[in-house]
Structure formats: structure tokens, C-alpha cells
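Need NADH dehydrogenase [ubiquinone] 1 alpha subcomplex subunit's 3D structure for a figure. Predict it.
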Amino acid sequence: MDPHKIIANKVPPLRQLYHKWRSLRNVPFRKKFFIGYDLDGNTFWEFRNYNDPARMRRIVEYRIPNLNYVDYKIPPQWVQWLRHNRPTSPTLEELLADFQRQQQLKGLVQQAEERWKSIPLKDWSKEEQKTTEQKAQPAFQQPTRFTGKRDDYQPEGWTPSAAKPRHDQQKPDQKDSFQPQGWSPSAAKSRQNEDQDFKPSSWNPANPSKR
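Structure prediction for NADH dehydrogenase [ubiquinone] 1 alpha subcomplex subunit:
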């Protein structure tokens, strides 16, 4: 594909001659210079900046002025040139090579999407059902409880002869044999009289109590 043929289909021949004449820099009193095209036929210009003579101003003029500027997509190479990030303007051959690269990339992406669509979809309903069943099952089994009596348990190395008798296992004959005596008023009164008749003995210094 010849890039010049692409421009010929979008820019008339007389217009191209005019642009070539405007690209000449040796014409006196000329302030605006033509730089080049993009693949859509838009033109890029450069003119002198009186506020900064060392830095030229750069603009783009769209092929169809009636359209809004947002309807155009300027190539990134020309955007870099407009922002002075690129010293030289891009050529039509460079723009065409980048355009072909983008088309090839789009074709590869489309092929990858078709391969993905050809793969049968996985039935996620069955997977969700299996997951629900697994969640319904208990994660662990509860340990079995010991149902034997407490007194029947014997740890390893334990002998009945070494065990001490528990209080609740004492025989009736081993209990305390204390039995209180019967209470009577006469016995209580006699004890009270004994307490009243008590008299302390006189103290003797010769016989001190031992400490």
C-alpha cells in the first residue's frame, strides 16, 4: 500500500501543489509553513512565535472543518510533534507502518477471542451444588464421650492396694464413734455451782511458775 495514494484519494492534486509551495521557507515575508499530512488528510503547520522567536508554534488543520475536533484521532507521532516532544515530523511511511501494526494486533486479538469462544463453557451450577453439599457436611466428627463409671477407671500402673479410701467409701464401722451424752437440768446446775465456788489460791513468790 502506497501512502501517497492514500493522500491522493483525500487531498486534491491542486491542494497538494499549494501545500508544497507553502512548505518553502525561502519565500520572503512568509510566516506560516506547511509541514505534512497524516493518513486522514489533516495538515500540520508551523509559524513563527513573536513572544519566543527561538520556539515555533505548531498547529493542526483538519480536512473537514465542519466536524468537531473530538471526532478526529490524531496519530501519537503527530501529537508528540505538536507538543515539541519530537524534533522532526513523522513521515507517511512511518504512519502507514504503525497503522498496519495496529491492524495486525487487532487481528490477533480477534483470533484469540474466537479461540476462547470455541472452548465449551463450564457448568458452574454443578460446581456450586458440590460446594453446597460440602458445606452442609460437618467439618469434623465429635469425639465419643466416655460412658463408663468414674470409679471403674484405672490408669496405667495403678493398683487398688495403693489407692487411699475416699470419705464417701468408708464403711459404717469406720465412722467416728462419738456419741453425745444426754442433757439434764441437774447436771447443768451442778456444773454452774462448781464454777461459782471456784477460788484461786494465794500467790507465793518462792514458787514462781516456770516459763
